């Protein structure tokens, strides 16, 4: 393999990697894939559809190509999922600081999935098991995961949401979200975005509990702690310099 150019000598594989690399930057139409990869339009389409068959590529609500769910599954199976690897101590610290249950959510298509949790040890709590799949239409974590979507996609998502564009504008301005009774009656939560090395939002860290305890404005109580934890997750995802 030519490490300088990333060419392995297996043409179809090299071209498929070009497609996947282009999608790291975010959703892309076929025309955008052609521009980003330099591949002929029929070739780019054929490879993207083939990768979609294997769930390495998916589609968003507008039919654009996106990275598929299979990448996260492979990373988790190989034990290389950095988010999950660092989640335990960070969520435990957040739980102990707020005395509420703490969760980490990642988007999977049109749902969000809880990938790590630290439950409140005693008393009434909001229990969310690892692997739980929830709607993207309600709750502070959903607000965080969609707030920085491109405007066209956001317009589609808001049609079925319990929050509106003004709510998401507030999320972007503050850098965190909160909700009371939006996902489930009697439950309140506060969430903040975790960003990958490119700056894209890749997850949401949250605390949640009974609304009667968190109050009508839970962000006033817990936003600072949640933001610190989100920043710690973001820092953990930054690439480290190689020695020497």
TrEMBL record:
Entry superkingdom: Bacteria
Signal peptide residues are: none
Q: Does the keyword Chaperone apply?
A: no
Q: Which UniProt keywords apply?
A: DNA-binding, Transcription, Transcription regulation
Query: InterPro entries of this UniProt entry?
Result: GAF-like_dom_sf, HTH_MetabolicPath_Reg, Tscrpt_reg_IclR_C, Tscrpt_reg_IclR_N, WH-like_DNA-bd_sf, WH_DNA-bd_sf
Residues forming the HTH iclR-type domain are 10-69
Q: Is Phosphoprotein included in the keywords of this UniProt record?
A: no
- PROSITE patterns in UniProt: HTH_ICLR (PS51077), ICLR_ED (PS51078)
Question: Residues in domain IclR-ED?
Answer: 70-239
SMART domains in the record: HTH_ICLR
Which PANTHER family did the record assign?
HELIX-TURN-HELIX TRANSCRIPTIONAL REGULATOR, ICLR FAMILY, TRANSCRIPTIONAL REGULATORY PROTEIN
The entry's protein name is IclR family transcriptional regulator
């Amino acid at each position: 393999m030519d490490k300088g150019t990333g060419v392995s000598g297996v043409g179809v594989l090299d071209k498929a990697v070009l497609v996947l690399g282009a999608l790291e930057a975010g959703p892309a139409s076929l025309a955008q894939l052609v521009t980003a990869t330099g591949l002929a339009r029929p070739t780019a389409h054929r490879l993207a559809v083939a990768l979609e068959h294997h769930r390495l590529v998916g589609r968003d609500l507008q039919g654009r190509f996106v990275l598929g769910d299979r990448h996260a599954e492979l990373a988790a199976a190989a034990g290389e999922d950095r988010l999950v690897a660092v989640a335990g101590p960070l969520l435990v610290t957040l739980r102990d600081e707020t005395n509420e249950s703490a969760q980490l959510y990642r988007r999977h298509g049109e749902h969000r999935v809880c990938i790590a949790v630290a439950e409140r040890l005693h008393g009434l709590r909001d229990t969310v098991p690892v692997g739980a799949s929830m709607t993207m239409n309600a709750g502070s974590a959903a607000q965080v995961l969609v707030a920085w979507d491109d405007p066209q996609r956001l317009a589609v998502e808001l049609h079925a949401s319990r929050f509106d564009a003004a709510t998401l504008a507030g999320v972007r301005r503050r850098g965190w979200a909160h909700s009371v009774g939006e996902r489930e009656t009697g439950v309140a939560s506060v969430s903040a975005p975790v960003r990958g090395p490119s700056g894209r939002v890749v997850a949401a860290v949250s605390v949640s509990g009974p609304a009667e305890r968190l109050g009508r404005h839970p962000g006033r109580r817990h936003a600072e702690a949640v933001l610190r934890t989100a920043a710690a997750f973001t820092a953990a995802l930054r690439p480290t310099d190689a020695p020497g």
